[in-house]
């Protein structure tokens, strides 16, 4: 198997608003990771944007701390920004 | 017609050679990349051979031209038919070929023939990507370990004589542009550009090939030869 480091790939589709995680791959460096991602995940459609990140640079929240991280907010409506009027013409909020 | 056939045969034979890497590439991602490039080449070959068949006007379609011609009727350059015993050879060949194809397609895209310029306009974007891919690997191998440097230089030296054939006749004017594309990559890869003026084999465009092409065609054509006229 490959000795190259692991990279995580994020792609923004042509009409998409945000980059979405689509998968991972092995590549010796960022340039080749980009090109591999293009072949593997985008089929070279024009106008898409690709981000590659070394997997080692990503810090993830721990599943063990799930409750402490995510639970308290859900039942407290005042924590959610739903009490503002969105001004007209403001884009993707 | 011979002109279009030459371009189409270059792409077809290059595709066949690249396809032989399937599941043999140094890493999984490279396997996909090589197959990708092979598919691009095959796509260009199909368009060009179809058009060559129409120009000929003898009712031969892309399959008839691909599967029912012997090596003496093939018009590809010798470079594409050479075997690829080493990954460095494949990359050197792809570097030389894609730089050449890019220049040829760019030239054709701007030239008069409407049909040909549509094909060329599509193919030149692919060639630019192939060139980019080959350049990256040439630099990585050339400027990599002493062993990879040796193999890359070896591949460049071995294939260089075959690049003269690409610029025979009308296309002599493209060689300086080609040299500047290729030399920039070789320099960055810390490789030495072989001297011009040595051995310069040719004849592919006239159907005079190396011994490698007929083996390649035997494998490519065996099924069609065994079941002529079959549909798939």
Automatic annotation (TrEMBL), chain A:
Highest taxon listed in the record's lineage: Bacteria
InterPro entries documented for this protein: PaaB, PaaB_sf
Alphabetized Pfam families for the sequence: PaaB
Protein name, as recorded: Phenylacetate-CoA oxygenase subunit PaaB
From TrEMBL, chain B:
Matches recorded under Gene3D superfamilies: 1.20.1260.10
GO biological process assignments: phenylacetate catabolic process
InterPro entries per UniProt: Aromatic_CoA_ox/epox, Ferritin-like, Ferritin-like_SF, PaaA_PaaC, PaaC
Signal peptide annotation: none
Any one GO cellular component localisation term in the record: cytosol
UniProt-listed NCBIfam families: PA_CoA_Oxy3
Name the UniProt record assigns to this protein: Phenylacetic acid degradation protein
Encoding gene, per UniProt annotation: paaC
